Amino acid sequence: MTYPEGYLLGIDAGQTVIKAALFDPSGHEVAVARATTAVSSPHPHWQERDMDAAWGAAADAVRQVLDVSEVDPTAVLAVGLAGHNDGLHLVDGAGRPVRPAVLATDSRAVAEAARLCELTGESALAMTGSVPLPYSPVSILAWLRAHEPSALERAAALLYCKDWLSLNLTGEVATDPTDASAFATDLWTQEWSTAVLELYGLEDVARLLPPMRRSSVVSGTVTATAAERTGLRPGTPVVTGCHDVDANALGIGAIGTGALSLVLGTFSINQVVGNAPVVDPRWQARTFFPDGASPRWLHMSTSPSGASNLEWAVRQFGGASYESVISAALRDGALAPVVDDPLYLPFLYGGPVPSSGGGLVGLRGWHTAADVYRAVLEGIVFNHRWHVEALGSSFPLVGAARLCGGGARSAAWSQLLADALGLPVEVTDAAEAGARGAAMLAGAGVGAFADLGAAVDACVRVVRRHEPTRSLDARYGRYLATAEALATLRT
């Protein structure tokens, strides 16, 4: 079936999977295609990806979705992009990668992050809305200066994941405020700040800062070379795009002040929209889509302690698929843990508080694989609760929590999350929330929607609601006590 208004294409680039999805003007998914990319770990703590491979995967996904949908490329009105934040993508003056991309699960810069936190004290939090973390661009830049100075010398621009894909699509170097606010923007003006660079001792990096454009502004068009690679029409408008967590919030309609949204994905993402920034070391206050001319902020309490734990467990211990593992672990009465069930700490790649790493505690000889997997799933939702409670200490949470990410596809895991939070959880019809959010930005950029509020009204529908059915407070108390006790074992 064709739509005279045309189609909107959204590209959502995660750290291992890149998705391209076509939507009609009502936000219904017409087709989706996925391509995977390999993550390399040449040294402990390193998580990298070949940048050309990432572009190739994105281009393949776009071509596949056009082929599967049989949509004429001339009917694609515009392209929007979203991608993971943090990490680092450096390109030279010719727009070519300087080195492999550093991903947000990378932790090589732990020492640099600690030094920068000590150096800047509370100033970084007050000026930028966040403190340096191991996967923050500022920490990785400090690491490169110490260990790979030639990479910085060759670099001409600092980009984020979606910016790299946009560069290949359009030939334009640019970023948007949502991604830029992870590095060196002023918290209040939401613009690049030389004062922030000076605070970090990175004044020389100013030359790498790309132009900043609003997320829904058309920042370029598909080049002839990119058209040949992707199957898109040359000249198709491409909007600047945004950080994938912002796209997720948009794609599930959680854009109002006080709206709580969660991503049950690789990272544990928990966020609340505010009309003014509130700073706290437990979250990052970053730029969000403006409400008309008024700036807004997305308060993100996050950690690399999400579904990556389940992916690791399946790789190590086996399982036909994530779906089969979740089903076996949470079927029937298995949702209700007993007192001696093991506890899992989901800190394989770091956590929201200092820890000695991940852990499986209380394992007994009679426990089964399903018990272990259930502990992993429970540990992930308990980590979400820690973040949500942090946000709830400063923000009134309005309405139900909106949920997206791969875990949202499981009704049982979504229910476990509602029980852990003690809050209602809503799931929308967005199977690919990030891609839909990116497509909605594209629609706003070419006038298909009057604004983002109109885009939400047209595109988002709630299809499932989970009310809390039992208390997990006692289990959560044991989880916190275990995490705190094991934190003393750090070296």
Rounded mean pLDDT is 93
The main β sheet shows up as: 7 strands, mixed
The CATH superfamily label of the largest domain reads: ATPase, nucleotide binding domain
- Structural class estimated from helices and strands: alpha+beta
Poorly predicted spans: none
Give the distance, in angstroms, between the N- and C-terminal Cα atoms. 60 Å
Q: Could you give the count of β-strands?
A: 20
Query: Which topology of the largest domain does CATH recognise?
Result: Nucleotidyltransferase, domain 5
The CATH architecture of the largest domain can be named as 2-Layer Sandwich
CATH class of the largest domain: Alpha Beta
Total domain modules: 2
Structure keywords:
Nucleotidyltransferase, domain 5; globular; 5-stranded mixed beta sheet; 20 strands
